[in-house]
Design goal:
mainly beta; 7-stranded mixed sheet; single chain; about 130 residues
Length: about 130
């Protein structure tokens, strides 16, 4: 069993930065991801890091603005969000995929993940 605890959301203005964190207790995941869900919409991939590959993936909409990083000593991963835009407003969820997967692109898919955080609200005002 893995429990994920998120923190770091809030209300900011366009152009500001925020850092989200997600700490896992229990098994170490191979894939550590972030998704977001805006009101009335589905849950969308934002970023992920695959430990076995040592590689990160990003959604096109956040590339060059968001960075995912991992602190293995704390079993924690972060999402540094810079130059936030109103369209980034959503509930952000961290997610953990336990099994090793050779197909890097699978990190974009919800079904890859076994455990989810509780979600944290990010609101960006214009």
């Amino acid at each position: 069993q893995v429990r994920l605890v998120e923190s770091g959301g809030g209300l900011v203005q366009a152009g500001d930065s925020l850092r989200l964190s997600c700490t896992a207790s229990g098994r170490n995941p191979d894939t550590m991801g972030w998704f977001r869900q805006a009101p009335g919409l589905g849950r969308d991939f934002v970023a992920a890091f695959r430990r076995s590959a040592g590689m990160a993936l990003y959604a096109d909409s956040v590339k060059a603005r968001f960075t995912i990083s991992v602190d293995n000593t704390k079993n924690t991963w972060y999402l540094q969000m810079n130059n936030l835009k109103p369209e980034d407003t959503a509930v952000y969820y961290c997610a953990a995929g336990i099994l090793t997967d050779r197909i890097l692109e699978s990190a974009r898919i919800i079904s890859t993940y076994d455990y989810w955080g509780q979600g944290t609200q990010v609101t960006v005002s214009s």
